[in-house]
């Protein structure tokens, strides 16, 4: 039976975060029905000014801030801190990604907020966590990829260390933060007590590289770059066809025998150089030459059909456009048409999870700066219009303004 409520209906999140990791965390919670109130400074989240732009709005901001309400409060004022503290007193979750110490200076640190609301779940996302010798350092995705060994493990063996093609440190930190919040909410149901969830992007990025960490933990040897192949299995990597590249993944002798038959060289299955996964990896260059000689006269589509029909895990190397425009992505609903602020339609990423007991998850447009300041202060705090107007006149709250955050306040 499908119920009408989403899993996090009734959960209120106060989101002080900006840019990517923190906003992704709260966006994922909003996808599941949480009421996410985004607190922005007078200049707004920096991501509002970062392209690409569509319909006059940042595509990055729109994606990371779907399903939220925007309230502008100047936290550098005493009254602004009072308003923020009052909102947090009626919240289930707070998310922030300031550098350690900044939230405390702004009056919204865990100790101050939990004193008023002991059941509060408070998630801090920072570059290096709330403790440790590097905790004071600011961090960006490229910094974390460099420090955590991800760049060193990515790229050709004789080439330079290479960035992964997206901001994976930011993304995985946001995902781990949402996971931590959900675990804390489950625990709160049992104990009634909140907790501080400390999410370090450094820790999260190392956890993302699960196989690299496991190999080092077991052997004491750090994996070197292997390019577009698997470090311990073959054939397992990218290969060239006549008009592009494809990937195959062969992990056992049964699959290798099928591959040998499919490329017209069944004798390879009996070649002692290719007797098992370890020996095939040792002689990967010779094996690659055999596969690419066969593929050199065939386009990628033909290669994929031949190997796919033989039961070999195979795929073309697609662009992000091809992936998102594929029939499978459309069927799974990975991009959702939503109404943009200007009345046109735009596409936003949807929550990737599907729940049999719940309806489709929520995907609504990102808010305009300060769009919900008045309604939230009235509905949540019970302030009347004259009080809100007085706060606005004194610059404590705003509904429309532009500007920039102080960069050294970011995680």
Automatic annotation (TrEMBL):
UniProt signal peptide: none
Keyword field: Transferase
Stored SUPFAM superfamilies: CoA-transferase family III (CaiB/BaiF)
UniProt-listed PANTHER family: SUCCINATE--HYDROXYMETHYLGLUTARATE COA-TRANSFERASE
Protein name: Formyl-CoA transferase
Pfam family of the protein (one): CoA_transf_3
Domain of life: Bacteria
Record organism: Caballeronia hypogeia
InterPro entries with a match to the protein in the record: CoA-transferase_III_domain, CoA-Trfase_fam_III, CoA-Trfase_III_dom3_sf, CoA-Trfase_III_dom_1_sf
GO terms for MF: CoA-transferase activity
Lineage: Bacteria, Pseudomonadati, Pseudomonadota, Betaproteobacteria, Burkholderiales
Keyword Transferase appears in the UniProt entry: yes
UniProt keyword Membrane, yes or no: no
């Amino acid at each position: 039976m499908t119920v009408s409520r989403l899993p996090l209906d009734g959960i209120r999140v106060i989101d002080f975060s900006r840019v990517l990791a923190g906003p992704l965390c709260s966006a994922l919670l909003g996808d599941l029905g949480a009421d996410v109130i985004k607190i922005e400074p007078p200049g707004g989240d920096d991501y509002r000014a970062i392209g690409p732009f569509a319909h006059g709005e940042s595509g990055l901001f729109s994606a990371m801030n779907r399903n939220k309400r925007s309230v502008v409060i100047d936290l550098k004022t005493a009254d602004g801190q009072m308003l923020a503290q009052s909102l947090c007193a009626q919240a289930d979750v707070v998310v922030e990604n300031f550098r350690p110490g900044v939230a405390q200076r702004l009056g919204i640190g865990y100790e101050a907020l939990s004193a008023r609301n002991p059941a509060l779940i408070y998630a801090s996302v920072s570059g290096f966590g709330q403790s440790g010798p590097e905790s004071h350092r600011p961090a960006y995705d490229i910094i974390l990829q460099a420090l955590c060994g991800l760049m060193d493990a990515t790229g050709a063996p004789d080439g330079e260390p290479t960035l992964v093609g997206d901001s994976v440190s930011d993304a995985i930190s946001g995902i781990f933060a949402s996971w931590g919040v959900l675990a804390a909410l489950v625990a709160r149901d049992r104990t009634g007590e909140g907790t501080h969830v400390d999410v370090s992007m450094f820790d999260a990025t190392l956890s993302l590289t699960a196989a690299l960490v496991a190999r080092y933990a077991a052997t004491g040897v750090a994996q070197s770059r292997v390019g577009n192949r698997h470090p311990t299995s073959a054939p397992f990597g990218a290969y060239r066809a006549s008009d592009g590249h494809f990937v195959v993944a062969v992990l056992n002798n049964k699959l290798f025998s099928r591959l040998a038959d499919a490329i017209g060289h069944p004798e390879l299955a009996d070649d002692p150089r290719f007797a098992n996964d370890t020996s095939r990896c040792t002689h990967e260059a010779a094996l690659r030459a055999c596969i690419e000689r066969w593929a050199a006269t065939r386009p990628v589509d033909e290669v994929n059909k031949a190997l796919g029909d033989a039961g070999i895990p195979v795929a073309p190397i697609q662009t992000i456009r091809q992936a998102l425009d594929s029939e499978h992505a459309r069927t799974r609903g990975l991009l959702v048409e939503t109404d943009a602020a200007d009345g046109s339609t735009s596409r936003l990423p949807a929550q990737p999870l599907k729940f049999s007991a719940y309806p489709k998850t929520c995907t609504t447009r990102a808010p305009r700066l300060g769009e919900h300041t008045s309604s939230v202060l009235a509905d949540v705090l019970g302030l009347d219009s004259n009080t809100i107007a007085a706060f606005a006149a004194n610059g404590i709250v705003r509904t429309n303004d532009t500007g920039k955050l102080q960069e050294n306040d970011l995680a």
